[in-house]
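Notebook, p. 212. Picked up where the previous page left off. The plan for this session was modest: take the two constructs that came back from the sequencing core last week, fold each one, and keep the raw output in the notebook itself so nobody has to go hunting through shared drives later. Recording the first one now, exactly as returned: residue sequence, then the structure token string.
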Amino acid sequence: MSQRLKKIVRIPLRDQILDSIKRAIITGKFKASEKISEEELAAQLGVSRTPIREAIRVLEQQGLLEVIPKDGTYVTSFDSEQIKDGLHVRLALELLALKQSLERLSNLEWRNHCHELQKLLDLMFDAAQNLDAEKDAELDIEWHTTIIDASRNQNLSRTWRLTGLSHFIWSLEYRLYPLNQDDLLKHFERHKKLLHVFNEKNPEQCASELQYHIIRKIQDIDSAENPHPNV
């Protein structure tokens, strides 16, 4: 009998809790420098404080929360220079992932990789049409995580997840520079252009476009801070 139903995936409770708190931070429901309470989080999520502590520990490692002894837990606050520093680190990781995936994947595997990116891109377009910035953030993270994982470099994938770099960057961008529908559609078009280059599988062009894709975010931040620079 052919497989026509999707298998049920059971997500561990600790992962659900982590994802819920992370989403609240990324989308700005918890503001920068806001103090959060284990007890209140546990009450809102209907769980004990033990998995809340585990989630806080992971989010602290990922740079989204700051735990101050004898004081409490706060949503991390960063300035634009730290955001740009994070983007440069992210660029280095993604360029390495791209290089290794181009070297290690067969032509068929590369086409399948691009097909997975296309499916995420289609969902990104739907999110833009629905003005769903939260969904767009999730898809953006998944899109670039797919690039990382295609490298087949477990150390690289582990580093990407351990640092929570993608969530860190999106959280800060989301809080500092809220997106409207035009921004979301522009965001979609940038990924569409990048995927078009990936489909050609020219290593130099792929690396150049990926670099431009991320560096342009730094330029966006500079433009937001200095809308009318002196020339």
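Okay, moving on. Second construct, recorded in the same format:
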Amino acid sequence: MPTPKTAEHEPNNMNWKNIVKKMTSLKPVDTEQGQLVNAKGDEYQVLRETAKQHWDSMKSYYHKAATAFTKGEKEYASYLSEQGRLKSKMAREADEKASQDIFSARNKSIENVITIDLHGQHIKQAMKVLKLHLLFGAYVRSVRSFRVITGCGSHGVGKSKLKNSVINLLQQEGISWSEENRGTLLIKLNGQTDFSFLDSGSDTD
């Protein structure tokens, strides 16, 4: 008589909303002021111009604040220092936006395809891995395509339960896909970040 499965041996369900929160909290690496970016022509200078203006304003405010302080104009110096801090914040935000714009411009024609092999996985575990990769592709701009190997069933006819589960999920989420061969699917993400499985308590959906 087979031993019944116990809950302690079942994979835990993922808290998808917490994972999304962590993904969205990831920020591009800050670019140091003055660091060169491999952009064509004047692209770097154009995209960084706003940040440069804020950095220049910040320096000007701090210089004026120091001058005012030496003259005993402490309140005015405090005001100028606060304006300098504000310009510093605006400059960093502009630098971050420029970094993202430059990355998009330099990588828009590059399509990275990640291959994941789910063949041999239990359906619940395989779906968990697939969902993690979908979220990864949703928040990492350079990844938009996946090649998913599911296998084609015990009889090699392309009708494995795993493959059907993957297709059902993709259709449910409205994700574009095509069949490369009987045991492999090609998935194309188009900037989608809203998935229905984020509200689900099951990893088999």
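Notes on construct two before I forget. The chain has five helices and four strands.
Flagging for discussion at group meeting.
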